[in-house]
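Running this now, will post back.
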Amino acid sequence: MRHLFRSTLLPALAALLAAGSLQAMNSAPSAAAVAKLAPQVAAIAAVSGTPQARMLMTRSLAEQRQPRGPAPLAARWNGSGQVQVYLGFDRAGGAPAASALTALGATGIRASSELGVVQAWVPATALYQLAALPQVTRITLPRYAVPRRNLPPVGAQPRSGSVTTQGDQILGTAQFRQATGLNGSGISVGIISDGAGDIAKDQATGDLPTNPAPYVDAKLPGSGFEGTAMMEIVYDMAPGAKLGFCGPATTVDFVTCLNDFAAGTGGFTPTIIADDLGFPGVALFTDGGFATAVKNFAIAHPNIRLTSAAGNDAQNFWSGTWTPTPVNVTVNGVKYTQAQNFGNAGVPNTSMTFALAAGDTVTYIVQWDDTWIPSPPSATAPNDPNDYDVFLTDTSGNVLACNQGINLGAAASPPSPTSCVISGTPGPNNTPGPQPTQGNSYTNSGTSQQQLQLHIYYGAGNPGTHIKVIAYANNHGIVLVPNTPAGSIYGQSALPAPYEITTTAIDATGAAAGNNTIEPYASQGPVFFSQPATGTSTRQKPDFTAVDCVLVTGVGGFGQANSGTPPSATFCGTSATSEAVAAIMALLEQAYPGKDPYAMLQAGAKALGSGSPNGVYGYGLVNAYQSGAALSTPVATISAPAGNVSIQTGQSVSFAGSCTISGPGSAALSWSFGSSGIPGSTAANPSVTFATAGSYTVTLTCTNTAFSTSATTTRTVTVTAPAPPPSSGGGGGGALGLDLLAALGALAAAEAMRRGRVSLRR
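Update: finished.
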């Protein structure tokens, strides 16, 4: 959360710092107040009230007008000379009074008890006075949101197609609606993204509903069009669901959106909330304060389901262990003897590399697994005493941005220089502190692509041995070399189910052709956590896969424009998946109220990859129709006869059967009686005569007409011929029967003839 001062400001800032302007600006601030300022805030306070501060404000306003906005770690100013900050407070002591903040010129005050901060726009000239308030424990820049829409590489070609999202067919929602007649009515889906501009244009073309119109949080309408595209996808797939939107810029705003939704602000209370935001700088080795706040919300509101995009960081993420190689490097008077080896023992490599397009801004973040200091820390909480130092250079070794020391001020761990030499000129040493993290931003102001290198040196103390690196560019995707996709899910998206359902992406065009390959940029799991207080663990993520690079209207210029009629655009990134899964959940929750949505999604998911679930696809590609088929399989019951029966030929058996269906659809009942000579029946209670001896398997089949799913149950009927009736003889009791007398007579005659033949031979 740092602002990188450009080359035109560096000499002036250095002069101000050298001249002791830190005290001249705000009536000689106390050392205690100065120690409460995070380094990036301290740098702003140092120049407040000077032309340099005016230049910082002008540049910030210009960056905010760019399509992608400023870098996520940059300070944000408004035209009134105010900077947005987090004022940390000790929860036990309470937040600073709003009246005290207002008296110092603060506006836009929003307190978050969940995060322990007050978010406010404050005059840069009042930073020291604010830090002097006894309730304020620390002043930092907010954690700003990054939408998880994939950024195309330079020269990417647009795609073409209709404006109805392809996921409607691929993910089975069109088939589900056709089979059941359900469309998500009675379910409300809230979207949390960057903005919901041009809703009226989508309503005019029928791409968003007019009655009711999508609700937009008046406090947090956001700025941008990604939320509009997300609502288009939900409307395509679950057109009966009500839609709502909230556009947070910070973690405080995000929690406010959740609370506003849950409170039914504006009369809109969602059943499902889908977000596609990431917050660079939050904890990577544990559930930090923000993720914990989202988890606590989920626990407090079990009837609201949360879905979140996994992220697009697979190629711009690296995770590994500290593997030092000897170096002899001096930067800003600090000598380094160990650097991270990104190669191997035989061929060491002290940097990871990537290309940055002309005019683009990169933001990098490096964290290690020391204990994550509560955010904000209490007034007595120490800074992490250990650190790695991080440098961004060009291929000639010129330092472009850097981080030295955990923190500036009285509590800093040495070495703690006040500036970082950038191409020979002292610039701001931007480190977030007090957590075990470093980070900064750099803009390629040239006219051609630039090759950059990121170096990690041993700084001080005994830092944790596990390290994670994430780098972001504002306008184009970047690829770190080396990179490690596994483990690149973080923040609220790394929360386990049922608190958060995390979604990843395969390309829609490929999926339609049967090619279910994960997008190369889609963040992957499992998530690796390691903290001294909590130990080491891994967490299964993501949960499910949907499709991205789907077509939307492209209002406001959103997405990659396509040629065709009507005009359309392609929406790529895992951002396109959380709302698609939310739409499927809306259909399933309407059809099967009370059932666990996670289990319903899992029932219809097509397993992909090795093992299920896995860290690439989770449980696989979701499908509303297949979930419906699995959930709506009927139950067939034969109530009569109660068990298998045995009869004789010519006798009849009366049968009674029934079909039960859970969810939508109707039952078709049919009987077969185990013989081609006996016709089947669709009557519930048929009676059948068995004329021929044998064993017959009688089958009752129940079919759900909506999903063509069926179930059977059987009875066995054993048929035997009757025993022969007893014969009756003449005379009284004990007389031999006529048949027996005849047989005896025949035997006697035969014996007489035999004897005659014997006599003649003699």
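The mean pLDDT is 86. More later if anyone needs it.
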